[in-house]
Amino acid sequence: MSFGEQPAYLRVAGDLRQKIIDGTLAPHSRLPSQARIRAEYGVSDTVALEARKVLMAEGLVEGRSGSGTYVRDQPRPRRLVRSGYRVPGGVSPFRQEQADEEVKGTWESRSRQEEAAGAIAERLMIKPGERVMRTRYLFRGEGEPVMLSTSYEPLAVTGRTPVMLPEEGPLGGQGVVERMAAIGVVVDNVLEELTSRPGLAEEMAELGGVAGQHVLVIARTFFAGGQPVETADVVVPADRYRVVHRLPVR
Predict the structure, then answer these.
(1) What is the pLDDT at residue 100?
(2) Which InterPro entries match (predicted)?
(3) How far apart are CA 4 and CA 209, in angstroms?
(4) Does residue 39 have a pLDDT over 50?
(5) Percent of the chain with pLDDT over 70
(6) What pLDDT, in 10s, does the model give residues 91-141?
(7) Residue 184: in which H helix or E strand, if any?
(8) In CATH terms, are 8-71 and 78-245 the same topology?
(9) What is the homologous superfamily of the domain 78-245 according to CATH?
(10) Taking a C-beta distance cutoff of 8 angstroms, is the pair 71, 29 a contact?
C-alpha cells in the first residue's frame, strides 16, 4: 500500500456510504451481505466485516437480529435555535432553551434533592456531598421529544427560598435569571460548552432513539459574581437537530 492510500475496508465503506447518500441503497433496504461485498469488491471476509462496522459506527446502517443489516432512514436535521437568557417578563424553561418562536413546546419535569457528585460539585464550585436541587426536564416540540435537560442548583443559594423548586412557587416555570433575581442573586454570565458523545440507554429511551446514537451535549452554567448558581446538561439527538446560536450584538 503506497503512502496516503486508504486501507481496503475504508475504500469499501466509502463506496457503500456514497451509495447510501445518493440513494442507490435506499432507506430500509438491506445492505449487501458479507459474501456479496467480498465478491463484488474482491476483498476478504475481514475487510467486508470491518467496512460494515464503519457504516454502523457512522449511524448509516443498523443490524436487525436474525434479519441482516439495513440502511437507516436519515432524518433531515431541524434547527434548534438558542439565543439570549433574559427576555422581558420571564420565559418558560422550554422557551429559554429553544428561541425559535415557531416551535410549540411543552415539557415534563421532576425535581429532587440529592448530594452533589464530584463532577457537578466541581462545576458548581462546592464540596462533593453538598445538597443540590436536581431537576430533570424532557422537552417536546409538536409532540416529538426534542431534548433532555438536567439542572442542578446549590441549596446553599436557593434552599428555604420561594424559588427552591424550579417548577413550583410564585416563579415556578420561569427562567433561571428571573428566579435568581427574585432572591437577590444577579446572574451576570453564562458559560456553554458543546460536546458530542454516544447517547446513554436511559437518555435514548426518553428521546426516542437507540443507545449509542450520538447526541450533542451542552454543558451550561449560570454565574453570579463569579459564583455558579446553576449548571445543567442539555442533551439533543445529533441526527435530528442542528444547534444554532443566535447571539445579539449589544
Answers:
(1) 52
(2) Bact_HTH_transcr_reg, Chorismate_lyase_/UTRA_dom_sf, Tscrpt_reg_HTH_GntR, UTRA, WH-like_DNA-bd_sf, WH_DNA-bd_sf
(3) 37
(4) yes
(5) 89
(6) 444 445 554 555 567 889 999 999 999 999 999 999 999 999 999 999 988
(7) none
(8) no
(9) Chorismate lyase-like (3.40.1410.10)
(10) yes
| Domain definitions of the chain by residue range | 8-71, 78-245
Q: Which CATH number fits domain 8-71: 3.40.50.150, 2.130.10.10, 1.10.10.10, 1.10.1610.10?
A: 1.10.10.10
**What is this structure's pTM?**
0.72
The DSSP code for 165 is: S
The cell numbers describing 200, all together, are 446513554
Q: At 43, is the pLDDT very low, low, confident or very high (cuts 50, 70, 90)?
A: very high
* Residue 83: all three cell numbers together: 439565543
User: Rounded to the nearest 5 degrees, what angle is found at the Cα of 68, between the Cα atoms of 66 and 73?
Assistant: 125
Q: How far is CA 231 from CA 10, 34, 136, 158, 190, in A?
A: 41, 47, 12, 13, 10
Instruction: List, edge to edge, every strand of the sheet that includes 189-198.
Output: 105-115, 131-141, 144-154, 227-237, 214-224, 189-198
Residues whose CB falls within 8 Å of the CB of residue 32, separated by 6 or more in sequence, listed in order: 16, 40
Report the SS3 class of residue 196.
strand
What count of other Cβ atoms lies within 10 Å of the Cβ of residue 117? Answer: 12
